[in-house]
Please model this.
Amino acid sequence: MMSFSFKVLRIGISFVIMCIVYKAAVNSLPELSPKQYFSTLQAGRTSLAYFYQADSSSNSIFLEELNKAVKPLQDYGISVAKVNCVKEEISRYCGKERDLMKAYLFRGNILLREFPTDTLFDVNAIIAHVLFALLFNEVKYITTLEDLQNIENALKGKANIAFSYVRAIGTPEHRAVMEAAFVYGNTYQFVLTTEIALLESIGLEDIEYAHLYFFHCKSVLDLTPQCRRTLMGQPLTTLNIHRFIKSMEAPLLTEVAEDPQQVSTVHLQLGLPLVFIVSQQATYEADRRTAEWVAWRLLGKAGVLLLLRDSLEVDIPQQANVVLKREEGMPVEFLVLHDVDLVISHIENNMDVEETGEDEDDDVEGPDMGIQDDEVAESVSRDRKRQLPLELILELTEETFNATVMASDSIVLFYAGWQAVSMAFLHSYTDLAVKLKGASTMLLTRINCADWPDTCNKQNVTEFPVVKMYKEGENPVSYSGMLGTEELLKFIQLNRISCPVNITSIQEAEEYLSGELYKDLIINSSVSALGLFSPTMTTAKERFTEAGKLLKGYVITGIYSEEDVSILSNKYTATLPALLLARHKEGKVESIPLANTHAQQMVQIITNALLETFPEITVENLPTYLRFQKPLLILFSDDSINPLYQKAVLAVVEEKHLDSVIPCWLNLKNTPVGRRILQAYFDVLPPLPLLVVVNLHSGGQVFAFPSDQAITEQNLLLWLKKLEAGLEHPITILPAQEWKPPLPAYNFLHMMDAAASQRPTGKDPECMKETDIQENNEEQHEDKSAVRKEPIKMRIKDWERSNVFKAEKSFRHDNKEL
Amino acid sequence: MGLSSLTPVWGSPGLLLTIALYPALTLYPAKTLASTHRDYCVLGAGPAGLQMAYFLQRAGRDYTVFERAAEPGSFFTRYPRHRKLISINKRYTGRANAEFNLRHDWNSLLSHDPRLLFRHYSDAYFPDASDMVRYLGDFATRLGLSVLYNTTIAHVTLEKARQAWNGHYFILTDQRGQTYQCSVLLVATGLSVPNLVDFPGSEHVEGYESVSVDPKDFVGQNVLILGRGNSAFETSENILGVTNFIHMLSRSRVRLSWATHYVGDLRAINNGLLDTYQLKSLDGLLESDLADLAVVKDHKGKFHITLRFYVEEGNQSAEAITLPQDDSDNFAMRVAYDRVIRCLGWNFDFSIFNESLRLSSGGEFSKKYPLIKASYESKGSRGLFVLGTASHSVDYRKSAGGFIHGFRYTVRAVHRLLEHRHHGAAWPCTEHPITQLTSSILRRVNEASGLYQMFGVLADVVLLKENATAYEYLEEFPVQMVAQLEAITGRKARHGLFVVNMEYGRNFSGPDKDVFFYERSVGHTEDAWRSNFLHPVIYYYRHLPTEQDVRFRPAEWPLPRPTAIHHIVEDFLTDWTAPVNHILPLRRFLENCLDTDLRSFYAESCFLFALTRQKLPPFCQQGYLRTQGLVGTRSLRQHRVDSGLLQDYATAGKRAEDSGQWPGYQGPGDQPQAPGPLVQPLNSDREEL
Model:
């Protein structure tokens, strides 16, 4: 499957390259004298020359068409020239009479074919005829059924046939077939006829002006009377033939055992849907036959796959027997179709719908700007019909607000009913209310600022969502943590105690440090901070109290300043004023001197103490570690970390070799999004665990620890040293693109201008043409449809251009004033 | 002056008060010599004067309001003559939002006191004028506004003074000869002089201001009413049932407010005569220039309409004057009238202003309004502002600036301007990170009353900060002054700006327009620019427009041509909160103006971006990275997966590199790659054909 898509890609790329070449080259029809012309001919190069007499008037239309053919023929490596016969010398190609001029096709200096100009009636005819002459061997022209049968018999077991009927040589359909033959002529035998009787004899009833059949002869035996045939349903255009042939090349039936959402084949790239026939172990043989039958019927219309339900990891609905995937990235549809014909008709009917849809899309061009691409807005909107248990949260109004927050300790969520982000958070908030139901003294309330703007303004809330806590006798505190249930719950619980807590006895202090005192709160705060002061250190105490208040809700802080404080300071070898940090998980207490430290610095010391040396990185805690702007050393593990690895990393940390990076690990079970991160780092995912260094802040390089080495202290050290020395190559570099608008916006200014210009008083359209001509020329290749219909979307650069109107308009205005 | 010393401005009690009162009471003759200084003098205690007094009071400024009558709102004690106000008093909207409700409250003034809402003063949808008088009286007393009643300012002059705020003082002289020296003069005297048209026989015409309001006085009479405004129709409405017929005559055709969207045009509540005219019940409308007219009184006391031209032909007796019907015997006004009533509106009273003030009338509405700038400051003298009805020249026949529900906001704008000019207080604004921009705009267009009432005149302005990471939001700026924005507001507009305006469709409103045509409403977002009903329009300028830009803007445009423009599609409920049809196109517009991605993301997505790309979208930068990420719930996550938005970034990293497009995270709108065309250049083995 990979190889197919690669081919398409290659053609796509070559097309892009050609477009660039087009733009650069000047495509004009060179005019030469016969002598000049023959001197330019090179061996092996093909060229088309039109010999004419300059004073002849009847050839102007032909010359125009020939001019149009220059560029397409150049793409096939064929040069085109017009040769002026009047200029002194006479060539035998010049003909005798003025109006009997001809075009000649040469390879090197060998004449391949001569064309009377009336057979080359337009650009299609020119290209069709020239390619037809060149592809003489690749495209067999036949007139009878017998010819066809002979070719068919000769190719059985050898090659497939592309048989096409066109009404006449030189038509656009003929050109399309020839262009296809140019690309696929080596792979398939192309057969061409203009005989309608031949088509009738192979059984086609309503014959239109062109048809193409694919004869599947390669895989049949000589004895088979006839190759299987597939009729192409679409009109004969180069693109359609290409798509059709590509879909013929794809395997008829593929078996898959993965999530249909993830499956992609060449069909999707060709704009064809994928049909999965769901199979079970028990009925596998029958299912496979059915699927094959369906595949033949849908050949050229859809890709057919056999989906093995038993070995599938994702769930698909029990009854569904067909899965339909219309487009890459679109959710799949699960269908229950009891008749095989239903499967066929479902797809065929859908294709019709799709085609008419495509026509409409032509007007709009490109992606639909009306589709929601904001994940928060979309998920909230999808959930809008679910009733949230909002009755658990007291709704406040202008009248009740003050009375409520004064009467009891309250949490208030300020939100706006129409704003997606605050509604998303309201979901988390209601989850919190369910958890806390009856278990907290804190009153959970909300106020919809879309209804009560004055109240919100008075509380200084001008953006949403905002959470504030109102406690008696204290200033309201804004919550500044993650907008999630767990994090807010933690905040509320830690706010039950009024930090910093005043510790009054040595025994109490010990209980505090061991975590006994606030047993139930310890899970919310991995560290307890205790400030030790002698009773006279009033300034230091004040500062610490301030710091404790700032940290309230996030860390437990306490203060001890009794006469016997020295007992504690001696025990923990601290010099007063000092800070004791009790790490409950590790059961350690460390001391930090606090002399001349300001409140903000204390806050910093305590928050830094919350950080771990080798943390498990999660969605919630990553930002706190990113603050340091250092590269991350991440160990990806699919479950809890192997203690050996942990030991190895910690050993390296202890030797201070890891100062320049932040070591951490990621548990894919807790943080499944980690898988997507790995996908971005590795082309082919090696087995876990994986150790990488990500340089997020300068350069974006990602380095991977060699997966064939064991994660040991030595190996790790060695690798880090190589890294530092610049001896390692990054496995990837993270993209550094800016976040640009995901889609364009409507260009209303443009539309208003267009409407204004249609009115008689509007601006003179000539004016715009002159100034825009340069850009229009450039654009033609990228967007041919622009001629049909003005594109109605914009990016900034379009606006710049539309400013051309501005100058002109104000000029008109000036005139009026005068 | 003695009374004014009791006001809170002078409010130090005790000894000082006694000292202040003493000279005032005893030295009466000396009073004329002592000129009292005020920073702000407000002329007129009508709605506009009181509104300005309120803002000055709240800001703690030194001010006095001068009022001729003994109570506020004296205009409303007499007018409208038939006592029914045509400003609606909508007491219920089904919404709690007080700001939104002001959109449908046309009578209240702005204040912080919810008791001072007009709905507490009248139950009537079209309230009685005496309720307005009562309301204004309460407004002045309850808020303790400093008003000097029974003080007629007879004369205003200018006195040069280098130290004065504006280089001069305004000297006001009242009827007692007392003078007041004012740094800033705020004229809120309304339109008080009945508009008279001078034509032969105009002395026979009764005025709206004095005509009887008792229908009994009109029984069986032929009545001609000059004028076509609400006062003319109000008068006719009152007597429609008792007269033989009423003819109405005016220069221009009737303009119906529901066709023009201008509240000063004829309101449906007054248009009974139109109904009977069109239903052939003898009443009728005529168009003619009043200045060409003449009224001749015959010996029976009846009035005949003729032309000034005929009257001026010679000294003829009344009976001998040529009448139009002598030549043209089907002349419409050939009947004799029992009464001719003039209802031609009012003009501004220019008489008290000395020439030195250069407060002239001018422009298109030659006599009616004084000439002012879009900042409501007189073109003639700095520091003189015109407020209220008299300031309507700024948006005459366009918006609501001549009416309470409009000028309460323009007064606030003038006050904000003054606060910056004289007290260094920059225009109030809020500053937010750029991720809040869509919400900020949506919030205002959905609730702001000033934008809604003063559409096209007051607009919100968003000033972008450097690199467009944050912005300042300024409310209700007089948008015609946008070129002077930095000087007026004290805010900087260096990095581009958005202007949020409300507009009707360009060709929707007008006296001859059919506003009920089929398909008048637009439902598709891509047609939003064709919206007809009032809808939000957002202008984006990369640079602050210059005065030239404003002056030479395209015809019909309220603002100069922007870099880009966005219309939020009109909404039947004026509720622009639909996620896909209102919010999404607005976001796309803002994104493309700012060249950034303004989507919101859950913390999990930000986490992914943080570890797989070097740059983060603004929402993640300003939220997640500051540990304020949006975590979401399980059910929301499931919806995200279902919608395909979560799935999509699965392969983002690689795909972005392949396609060379903008950073990964492709929207679901992405089309599958179309297969490349077939042709290949002939550089391969094909060359040897």
